[in-house]
Amino acid sequence: MGDELLSMKKIVEKYRDEWVLIVYEELDEDLNVKKGKVIAHSPRKDEIYARLSETRGKNVAIEYTGKLPEDLAVMF
Question: Is 38 exposed, middle or buried (0-12, 13-18, 19+ CB in 10 A)?
């Protein structure tokens, strides 16, 4: 894992309904990941956040590849 550069569409297909930690190579004009390398994936968000310390100095994004519940509140 982590060697293969994938489009976001392929990431969603390969890691359906999981949280993914991506070192991104390309973003679109809205800053959404277009291409990147998945360095961690899990159905549990806390496992992905625990891996963030390994990404110091890298351009990373955390994405969920499933459908988020409509009543979900996200805080930054």
Answer: buried
Distance CA 21, CA 72 (A): 20
Model pTM score? 0.84
Angle, CA of 16, 44 and 56, to the nearest 5°: 95
Please tell me the distance from the alpha carbon of residue 52 to that of residue 27, in angstroms, as a whole number. Answer: 19
Residue 42's Cα: distance from chain center in Å? 10
Q: How far is the first Cα of the chain from the last one, in angstroms, to the nearest whole number?
A: 28
pLDDT digits (tens, 9 = 90+) for 32-58: 999 999 999 999 999 999 999 999 999
CB burial readout 16-32, b (16+ within 10 A) else e: eebbbbbbbeeeeeeee
